[in-house]
Amino acid sequence: MPKNSPSIDMTPMVDLAFLLVTFFMLISQFRAEEAAVVDMPSSVSDLKIPDKDLMMILVDKEDHIYFTITGQETRLKVLNKMGEKYKVVFNEEQQKEFSNMASFGIPMSQMKEYLSAGSTERKKMQEKSEGIPSDSTACELCDWVFYGRINAPTFRVAIKGDQQTSYPKIRRVMDVLQDKKVNRFNLITNMETGTAE
Amino acid sequence: MAEVNTGDDGGGKKKHGKQRAKKSSTRIDMTPMVDLGFLLLTFFILTTTFNKPQAMEINMPIKDDKLQEKDKNKVPANHTLNILLTDKNVVYWYFGVADPAKALPSLTKTNYSKDGIRKVLIDENNKRHNAFTQIETWKKEASEGKMEEVEMKEKIKVFRETNKMSSLIVLLKPDKESNYKNIVDALDEMAICNIGSYALLESNDLENQMIANANTY
To answer: What ipTM describes this predicted complex?
Structure first.
């Protein structure tokens, strides 16, 4: 009785596996981790949101506001303008850190500390923070939008809200945008059928 | 030249060289590579997100504090449907204007389901120039390729412009208890029901009072 070899030819399987690896490597794009977890509502709208040229305001379910704008150069310009206004000077490392960062929800008073901190430290700070202040007395969000608008007038403006975000907060963000003459903006949603990501 | 075994004089002929000359298998153990391959595969599958987020566009009116009362757009009351959004996914609607001097309009309670507010919107929209069905027909023709997309949009635009003063106007008024999902749902209904003109406003004190009254029943 011939002894059957217990090993089978794995080559086709390996071929396929690496093909898939290559495929997923090429189509996946890495983006820096968002500062907030946002569960978006769904809609039937089929407008796609661009990756580039976008200014985005996130509002999470605790009504904390986060801000982000695309493009490293734009980010740098906006940060420096904000630094000038709030009398905060950033060193080169902090500037570099900022230009590579995703969204942030930190008031300007803590920005310097936040940029120098490590990633775990940052998460802690973000959790403690109340987001970007948007009250009419100290409206840092207004300034972010304003300088974002000046440095990148063609950028699309989008609001990304959580399903549970309260209406008054969203209204406040919309009011800020309207004050800054942004009358056309997008609400980011999920596709109607694919509710879960 | 004992150190260098050129293989010519070695080989299978010599008995003591047998071990070295034994034909080694050309197969190598691929298991670690396969392990790594599948590990990467799993990683990329899990980290990839396919569905890109969608966006809905809204245009807000220009904020102008200097706007005179007489310059403001007056909305015909009999075509105005007010939709009040409140908590627990409840929607109230009424027609016309809530005037404290007159009897308050009665609120109708409904929800965001297909038979809820959508039915009301489609019915009311159809009462005025059959607007919903008409636009839906054009949209269908365009999606079937019988009509160009541009032509369809132009037709809808002309249709809305000619019936401007007598078509349905929806005022969305979320109150303090409502959340972002409610607003998106409501705006979505506008798109589904082919409502041409709608506005996102804030509920006033009177309407809040009406909601409170309705909730107590």
So the answer is: 0.72
